[in-house]
Amino acid sequence: MMIIMHTDATEQQIAGVVERVEDNGLHAHLSKGEERTVIGVVGDGRAIFKDQFLHLPGVDRVIPISRPYKLASREFIPDNSMFPLDGVKVGDNGIVLIAGPCSVESRSQLLETAYAVREAGAHALRGGAFKPRTSPYSFQGLGEAGLEMLAEAREQTGMPIVTEIMAPEHIPLLTRYADVLQVGARNMQNYALLNAVGESQHPILLKRSMMASIEEMLMAAEYILSHGNRRVMLCERGIRTFETATRNTTDINAVPVLKSLTHLPVILDPSHSTGHWEYVAAIARAGVAAGADGLIVEVHVNPTEAKSDGPQSLKPERFAEMVSQIRAIAEAVGRSLAPVPSSEASPVTAAGK
Amino acid sequence: MMIIMHTDATEQQIAGVVERVEDNGLHAHLSKGEERTVIGVVGDGRAIFKDQFLHLPGVDRVIPISRPYKLASREFIPDNSMFPLDGVKVGDNGIVLIAGPCSVESRSQLLETAYAVREAGAHALRGGAFKPRTSPYSFQGLGEAGLEMLAEAREQTGMPIVTEIMAPEHIPLLTRYADVLQVGARNMQNYALLNAVGESQHPILLKRSMMASIEEMLMAAEYILSHGNRRVMLCERGIRTFETATRNTTDINAVPVLKSLTHLPVILDPSHSTGHWEYVAAIARAGVAAGADGLIVEVHVNPTEAKSDGPQSLKPERFAEMVSQIRAIAEAVGRSLAPVPSSEASPVTAAGK
Amino acid sequence: MMIIMHTDATEQQIAGVVERVEDNGLHAHLSKGEERTVIGVVGDGRAIFKDQFLHLPGVDRVIPISRPYKLASREFIPDNSMFPLDGVKVGDNGIVLIAGPCSVESRSQLLETAYAVREAGAHALRGGAFKPRTSPYSFQGLGEAGLEMLAEAREQTGMPIVTEIMAPEHIPLLTRYADVLQVGARNMQNYALLNAVGESQHPILLKRSMMASIEEMLMAAEYILSHGNRRVMLCERGIRTFETATRNTTDINAVPVLKSLTHLPVILDPSHSTGHWEYVAAIARAGVAAGADGLIVEVHVNPTEAKSDGPQSLKPERFAEMVSQIRAIAEAVGRSLAPVPSSEASPVTAAGK
Amino acid sequence: MMIIMHTDATEQQIAGVVERVEDNGLHAHLSKGEERTVIGVVGDGRAIFKDQFLHLPGVDRVIPISRPYKLASREFIPDNSMFPLDGVKVGDNGIVLIAGPCSVESRSQLLETAYAVREAGAHALRGGAFKPRTSPYSFQGLGEAGLEMLAEAREQTGMPIVTEIMAPEHIPLLTRYADVLQVGARNMQNYALLNAVGESQHPILLKRSMMASIEEMLMAAEYILSHGNRRVMLCERGIRTFETATRNTTDINAVPVLKSLTHLPVILDPSHSTGHWEYVAAIARAGVAAGADGLIVEVHVNPTEAKSDGPQSLKPERFAEMVSQIRAIAEAVGRSLAPVPSSEASPVTAAGK
Questions:
Q1: Which residues of C touch D51 (CB under 8 A)?
Q2: In Å, how far from its chain's centre is CA A122?
Q3: Chains with 3 or more CB pairs under 8 A to chain D
Q4: Per the CB < 8 Å rule, is C192 touching D166?
Q5: Considering only CB atoms, which chain D residues are within 8 Å of B75?
Q6: Neighbours of B293 (CB within 10 A)
């Protein structure tokens, strides 16, 4: 931490800051420039409370030097984190594809979509049973009935299930059915939820809030990691900007930035990050070209009938086309699609793990 | 809802859209321009599902006409909503001042601050016992011990208590101690929480997410209102923009916009919306000048020792100065500070209401 | 300037940075923490080239300590800058009101509006003769014919004229007619224009770009000031954010921030910063309550006939109402409206100054 | 254009709007819903002045239906625009690579870089002689001396030259030396400049302003096209958002969106859109994967000595590596790098065209 004094700070004010640093059991290192004095704080910058200095007389700014997250950082764990999802390895060289409808709407809709995405090469099935909706009057999901359909799709296709969790009290229920709990963008800073999913020790897909900085996303991951749960995937799903031509702005920069700052796998969601199915394949290709470890894509057998996110859902045939494009891009960057576990292998149920 | 067709949409595609509209039990009204056809959907726009049209062949855009919220709208309830908090009327002509520390840190810190803000003219006391913090390593609040201190401050000063709720399971505990439950910015779209506080029937201070549009904030209020809980205050606390000179950007436009769109009281939080105590009084004045019904301000007896938000907390003497400025501004716009209930009046306990 | 080394920077890399600092004729001051080394650069931080350090091996970040502007800063000139415009003092205790149509459209439109705003208490007349328009097919202004109408309005009402300049080659023409040259938001970083208006030595109203930081706005002012032209007013006119309920988001925080960072007068433009006439008066009040030194407001005798910005233009009677509200707010903050020079005083022509 | 009336608009107000529509020589088409009346305006929506309706009594909103640009739209010109730059075809199936230093700093720096990028596969050379800089105290470019060095590099390597234009009066000078005039991000809405480069009939690289929407960028292109100059490339170079981990946010969505809306070639600038050389190759790959027709990349033989943009400049060897990655990505999407014209071909001088 560096404390920048005002140009007209007095010797007494400087001494006051130094005293406060030492009160915290740390060491102050003075650097007197022609214009200003800067006080370096030596010790563990994470532990001490930066804000207390801002009010001291003569202080202009306080600049943190250390990054505020630790367990999530590549400085702490240099190698890529990897973990298996029912035989599919996440975070390894192979690109992982998660696909399925926004919401589980009916047994036939889900099973049809599940078979179609499996056929096209998907590794895992997404589908929401509890839906966060902007309007209290919109479809809120099928709840436990939807989870049962997901379990059936899992059993039939062998694909692990990714589904959203909206409240800590749903953990016992959801962990019975789901292989990965998704923390949605609107809940990225719902700390009660982050603590609960951290304690669950279940694999987590953490979506970036549409207005969270990359650092805040890593801090949210840190909450989960600090409970000893290391199986966390980070998902870029577009940020909110002034541009309205697309639903969100895909922060494609976040892909290489995250790969440099953290060891956690990075997933891109081109469906939410664009909001229009016509742009999904192009942005999916961009994500893998930029270094993403996987994609999560909305697919619906009949998008015009979808109860949510129809405009951004691909039809299965377009998804299949996208998969073949992604295979080519993966090879162009020296990677491949993750191998799909043989369907002969008897699918393990979530409960039985 | 208006459905805008592509310039090259065929007659068949237009017929397809019309059919879909009628399948929804609504009426389609064609308007053929020189360039495009526009299809007006006549009926209750709120009830039908806009997204289903976006995927139909030939459709370019779909534009909603009705506002998506109803109970929160001034069209539905033309007159200002008002409700009492222990004798202080919120939403009426008098400006309401809520003040206190960001976090409850100790009994003496809280009581000292409570007496100071009461003396200066505050109507209610704010103070967090459960704190949402970006870092899992930061101070997370005193929990129930903090609530007990708030109850004591309430008893001694007679001021109603505003405190933040972070999870639905805290409702029984918090409603025992608090007069107003604050839903924080990071939880504005935590729908499980919105439903729970709606059902609690307790007065709510709903803070705007730093990434939410004004319309989304009103939709969040709609969640609460749809449970029959009509005692909701809306709080503008700054939005996230590219500007970094201040912690957030006060969306001062939101004050007159909200006053025009909704009947709910509008409160401004100049502490979070600026992040620097030097700017708090100026923005507080601006808020009341623009039409806000109240202010919520962070005050700390010793900001340099504060465990959170020290840089944006006012010392009590500066708060007192701010109150006298606000009184002058209130008069300039034909309002006044809300009368402080006589301190002789035996303070009603929260439990006893 | 502080150079933050990577946690794993070697001694040799540190020595390399120190050498580079000394090559620049400056002094390097090492501060070795437990985690990292920070190198303070002592000397005139403004003069040396920060970017050259970012590529050196072992360097993580470079943090400037000095502000990048000088002539615009309050550290350099502590007292408020003031200057007269035809007898009206800008930057002094009195609030200055600039009003008039977006574009000069006709002689009668301009004169009628000019008399009406003068009557209501305006100190200066705004009106565009050269208009920057998003579309090449929109009305582009009357050009020199418009300037002649402005000159006539000036002569008849005695008000100084504020008009926009779009290209350096217009300076000889515009300085003949206008008392203040306005640099529009879209040209805030048109450096050829900034240099030209700096050299003109004419009073300047510099509008903030809708996506410029406060610091960049001060750097743009620095361009003008560096040519010896000290008569610069800064104008906040709203920034671009994700919120679409208003045309722009008024950055009301910018008012106290600018008043603290710079000695230059600060003007608010509530017409552009809201984009809707219904919100103009509320935001004008907020601006003065927050400390603005003046307002620039669009007024049109018949907004529905305006060729540009009709939706955000006030009718003269609403402007008059706004002026009386502003008078009350000014008094509430210990200020007043600037005195209007007696109309008996023979108006000085721009050419004759 | 659709005019949405207020829910409580009277019959008389509706009649007033209809009358106004007809005064404009257009036809009004009424659509009476249960809640509101919507008035469709039939005729050429581009020609009439939308804002005039917003002030009419009873009007709530006005929604444009037609896109505001025409010459730039794919509806107007369905096929991709292509044009040659000294034998390199822009806008065709082959990806075009423009590379070189931010600023021309010296003859040796430029020639060394030019040969290196040519060798690595670049098709054109970029280099600034007139530089827009945030600070008046920063290096402003070598001016005409820089242009002469560019001409020499052109003659020696045969590569066409791309250089920035900052003011209309530089056109005669710059068109003597440069093959492509670049309009920089800060000047994207400098309409005097857009008109001048439109009239020049010279090929233009138009950079998106960091604050412009995609639609506004197309409107800026429309200015140039409306002068009959059809050789316009559009360049996405990052937009400004709240994220500070990178200098700008690459709006990768803009690539497929632009390819769908316009026939003009789309170029990506990953140097400015990230601001850090480590991320340039990843984002360059993403751009081509998403459908970009070319890249413009900053390369410097010695980035630590660069007078501007050093942190985002690639060394020649890294650029060469990037080119081979781009070749692989281009093939993965069914494209290739544009063929480099044989160096035996006697290079045509710009003046001689």
A1: 306, 308-311
A2: 19
A3: A, B, C
A4: yes
A5: 7
A6: 27
Q: Cα(B323)–Cα(B332) distance, rounded to whole angstroms?
A: 14
- Per domain, the residue ranges of chain C are 2-63, 83-352
Distance, CA of B81 to CA of B262 (rounded, Å): 9
Subunit contact B136:A223, Cβ cutoff 8 A: yes
- Examine the predicted complex and report whether its ipTM is higher than 0.85: yes
String of DSSP letters for D245-268 = SSSSB-BTTHHHHHHHHBSS-EEE
Distances (CA, A) of B301 to B18, B257, B324, D210: 66, 35, 19, 43
Residue A215, helix vs strand vs coil: helix
Taking the Cβ of residue D328 and every Cβ of chain C, the question of whether any pair is shorter than 8 Å is answered with no
Q: At what angle do helices A277-290 and A254-261 cross, to 10 degrees?
A: 40
- Chain A residue with minimum CA distance to B314: A55
As a whole number of angstroms, the distance between CA C188 and CA D134 comes to 10
Cβ pair D34:B43 closer than 8 A: yes
For chain A, say whether D268 makes contact (Cβ under 8 Å).
no
Nearest by Cα to A223 from B208, C35, B140, B307 = B140
Burial class (CB in 10 A: 0-12, 13-18, 19+), D308: buried
Q: Of C193, C137, C199, give the one whose Cα is nearest residue C164.
A: C193
Q: Are strands C204-207 and A88-90 parallel, antiparallel or unpaired?
A: unpaired
Q: Which of residues 88-117 of B touch D (CB under 8 A)?
A: none
Buried b (16+ CB within 10 A) or exposed e, B58-91: bbbebbebbbbbbbbbbbebeebbeeebbbbbbb
DSSP bridge partners of D124: D98
D349: enclosing H helix or E strand:
none
What share of residues in chain A are helix, strand, coil (percent, to 5)?
Answer: 40, 20, 40
pLDDT per residue rounded down to tens, chain D (353 residues): 788 888 888 999 899 889 888 887 888 888 787 778 888 877 655 545 666 787 788 888 887 777 789 899 998 899 999 999 988 999 999 999 999 999 999 999 999 999 999 999 999 999 999 988 888 887 788 999 999 999 999 999 999 999 999 999 999 999 999 999 999 999 999 999 999 999 999 999 999 999 999 999 999 999 999 999 999 999 999 999 999 999 999 999 999 999 999 999 999 999 999 999 999 999 999 999 999 999 999 999 988 777 777 788 999 999 999 999 999 999 999 999 999 887 544 444 433 33
Best CATH choice for the domain D2-63 from the list 3.90.580.10, 3.40.50.1000, 2.60.120.10, 3.30.70.1140: 3.30.70.1140
Q: In whole angstroms, what is the distance from residue D338 CA to residue D121 CA? A: 9
- Residue B28 host element (H or E): strand B27-32
Model's pTM, two decimal places?
0.90
**Could you tell me if D29 lies within 8 Å of chain B, comparing CB atoms?**
yes
Give the count of alpha carbons within 13 A of A265, CB side only.
29
- Cα separation, D323 vs D340, in Å, equals 13
CATH class belonging to D83-352: alpha beta
A177 closest CA partner among A150, A206, A208, A145: A150
The structure tokens listed for A223 are 């909450």
Q: Which residues pair with B95 in a beta bridge?
A: B337
Please return the burial class of A50, using the count of CB atoms within 10 Å of its CB with bins 0-12, 13-18 and 19+: middle
Chain D residues near residue B33 by CB distance under 8 angstroms: 40-43, 45, 65
Distance between CA atoms of residues A318 and D343, nearest Å: 43
CB proximity list for C98: less than 8 A, separation 6 or greater: C122, C123, C124, C125, C126, C162, C205, C267, C294, C295, C296, C297
User: What are the structure tokens assigned to A219, written together?
Assistant: 């801090």
Q: Which fold has domain B83-337?
A: TIM Barrel (3.20.20)
